[in-house]
Amino acid sequence: MIKCSECGYENIDGLDYCDGCGAKLTAAPAPAAESGGAAAPEPVAQPEPAAEPAPVAAAEEAPAAPPPSEAPTGEIKPPPEPSVTAAAAAPAAEPPPASAAAGSSSRAKLQVVRGGRKGQEFPLENGNNLVGRWDPETGAFPEVDLDQDDPEAKISRKHALIRFEAGKITVEDIGSLNGTYVNRQPRLLPGNPVELKSGDEIIIGKTFLKLVVDPVS
């Protein structure tokens, strides 16, 4: 046992501080070990008592910062102007598709070059253009009326269909008796449109027509 020199409390061996008052203990000198005797057990270290936490000082209240819109002198500054205007930030408008632009900036016509009234022209309308011979009894009222250019009646009343739409021009045989030909190639199959370009030659019956596409100034 170790007796505390401060309060006289007797503590068990191996303690560094008094269990009674917490004072530092001074260990008494151990007697000399006899020869051949067992060695004295080493004292077991005891954890030191936890110190009480110091009181936390109340945080001082920081002075409120002045509003950002107010200057130190009390004057109110206007808000800063945006660096980029809404008009500059807006995306540029995309150009119209090429096909639509072509349809609105060109005009097309068929010109008789052989077998009929040479030089006769037939302007093409936007949309469908029926090619044939005018005949009210059968309800044939073609936009391209070749009745006067076909004395031998080689052209059917409803012979072919030319479509002019969005800058694209096609020709299609619609079941004619003598057929439709483009650039003297094999006869077109009915119901299969073929795209045309300016300068192409169309043969209907014995009448030769040339497609002319002019830009609109």
Describe it.
The protein has 217 residues and is mainly β. The protein is built from two helices and twelve strands. The protein has helices at 86-89, 98-104; strands at 2-3, 10-11, 106-114, 121-123, 127-132, 144-145, 158-165, 168-173, 180-182, 194-196, 201-204, 207-215. The chain is rod-shaped, with a radius of gyration of 55 Å.
Give a quick set of tags describing it:
mainly beta, 5-stranded mixed β-sheet, 217 residues, 2 helices
Summarize the structure.
The protein is mainly beta and 217 residues long.
Low-confidence stretches: 32-39, 56-62, 68-72, 84-91, 95-104
Termini separation: 121 Å
Which outline best applies?
rod-shaped
Helix content: under 10%
Quickly give the structural class: mainly beta
SSE inventory with pairings:
Elements: E1 2-3, E2 10-11, H1 86-89, H2 98-104, E3 106-114, E4 121-123, E5 127-132, E6 144-145, E7 158-165, E8 168-173, E9 180-182, E10 194-196, E11 201-204, E12 207-215
Parallel strand pairs: 5-6
Antiparallel strand pairs: 1-2, 3-4, 3-12, 5-7, 7-8, 8-10, 9-11, 11-12
